[in-house]
Structures are given as structure tokens and as C-alpha cells.
Amino acid sequence: MAPRDKVKNPAYQLVDKATYDHLPEPDWGVCVDLCDLVNAEFPTYGKDAVKALKLKIQKRHRPNAQSFAFTTLETCMKNCGARFHHMVIAKDVLGEMMRLVLGGKLQPEVRTKILELVEEWATQLPIHQARSISHWSPYDRVGVVDADP
Questions:
Q1: Would the pTM of this model clear 0.85, i.e. be above it?
Q2: What is the predicted pLDDT for the residue at 31?
Q3: Which domains does the chain have, with CATH numbers?
């Protein structure tokens, strides 16, 4: 059973390390360690990893940590499989991402990253997962129009 104390929970610890806002660049080793933990013990740590990442994504006042949270989330989405994808959807991480975009006050690069991730997931995940993601229609909701006719 996962530790109840977030400070002692390995998923929260790894997310804290991966999103430390004084890192010069993403710590890929920690991102891989988080993926390994989630894949090895999903029932114990999968939900915790998603919840921890969602908390970090919400930190607008720490744009570096927020950016690293998106990088870590992207890494987990690419490496942790369908159970992780379902948990991201169930915990409304995508909704939180779109609320950030729609609410404004984001660094332009963070806003762009959110839109790129949602678009990528909507087009690359299996159809049953993509339907849950694509209902956000990120570009339609924020007024981004494709320049190609």
C-alpha cells in the first residue's frame, strides 16, 4: 500500500525532483525513474503520480516547475501505457490544462506546450482514449485557427 504521507510517497518524491524549478533542464533520469515506478507498481503509485503531476501543473507562479511538470507528464504518457492514460483522463488533468489555457496569464511557451500535448494525445492515442481527449478541441476553444486553407 502506498504511503499516505506525500513526503514519504515515492511518486510524489520523484515528481518533486523532476519539477524542481531550479533545474537547468529536465532531469530525464528522474522522469524515467518515475515511469519505471508507475509501470512496476501502477496500482500503488499510478494514481499518486498523476495527482502529483496535476498539482505541479497548477503552479502558475512557478513557470519553470510547471514546464518541467508538462515534460514529465509527456514522458509518462509516452512510456506508461493505457492505465496511465486512463488515470490522466479520470483525474481531469486535461481539463486542468485547458482551464490554464483559457484562464490566460500563462507564459507563452507553457501555453504552446499545453496545446501541443493535447493535440498530440488526441491524434496519437488509441481511438477510445483519443475521444476522451479530443472533446476538449484545444485549438477551437482558444481561437487558434489553422493557417492552411
A1: no
A2: 98
A3: 6-140 (1.25.40.90)
